[in-house]
Write a structure and sequence with these properties.
single chain, about 80% helix
């Protein structure tokens, strides 16, 4: 039971801060007319996190990040992608009523962006490797599986909750003004994370 509780607490501690992945999933919930239309982003984010958590606990990611050139490449790609994503969010103009369909991301674009913010965000990956991967080392056998299941479970529940919260905000915002502000705020957060990644690149 202890590994399961440890996994839940640790996962919430890492996932609660307002990061790029959280912002994107919430944004999709808010800008889509139906919750089902935001599912591509939710499911993709959940699958990517599951894969990252499993590889971190299995120790594969530690081996990968031992190559300095690979780490450098990930930071650079992550920076440029987040800058582009911020621009895409900034210029998106939420609409209301029957015009809403034209303002949301397609399923294909949601999947691409959700996968990218999950897999091309060095800061998030280092958190998973450094914190979750390291924390799992104290467990073995069934205890490690309980720990892994707890972390992955929290991740999935959180993404569904974020999209639902976004949908509620979108329903109350008949004018579309709040959604526009959310888009602008989302873009600023994404750009701030991109600059943080760049600063980490130069500090190495």
């Amino acid at each position: 039971m202890e590994p399961f509780i440890h996994g839940i607490i640790l996962a919430f501690g890492l996932i609660l801060p307002l990061g790029v992945q959280n912002v994107f999933v919430f944004n999709q919930g808010a800008t889509n007319k139906k919750f089902m239309h935001a599912l591509p982003a939710v499911i993709t984010a959940g699958i990517c996190d599951t894969a990252l958590i499993y590889t971190a606990i299995a120790g594969v990611s530690v081996i990968v990040f031992s190559f300095e050139w690979l780490k450098l490449a990930l930071f650079l790609v992550g920076f440029f992608f987040l800058m582009y994503m911020g621009w895409a969010m900034w210029k998106t103009e939420p609409k209301t009523g029957t015009d809403l369909k034209g303002s949301r991301f397609s399923a294909k674009r949601q999947i691409m962006f959700a996968a990218s913010v999950s897999l091309l965000n060095p800061h998030a990956i280092m958190d998973i490797i450094g914190v979750i991967g390291t924390s799992s080392l104290v467990y073995s056998g069934d205890e490690k599986w309980f720990f892994t299941a707890a972390v992955i479970g929290v991740s999935w529940i959180w993404f569904f909750s974020l999209a639902l919260a976004g949908r509620k905000v979108g329903q109350f915002d008949a004018s579309g003004r709040l959604l526009k502000k959310i888009n602008k705020l989302s873009a600023l957060i994404v750009w701030a994370m991109a600059l943080y990644i760049l600063s980490q690149l130069f500090s190495h």
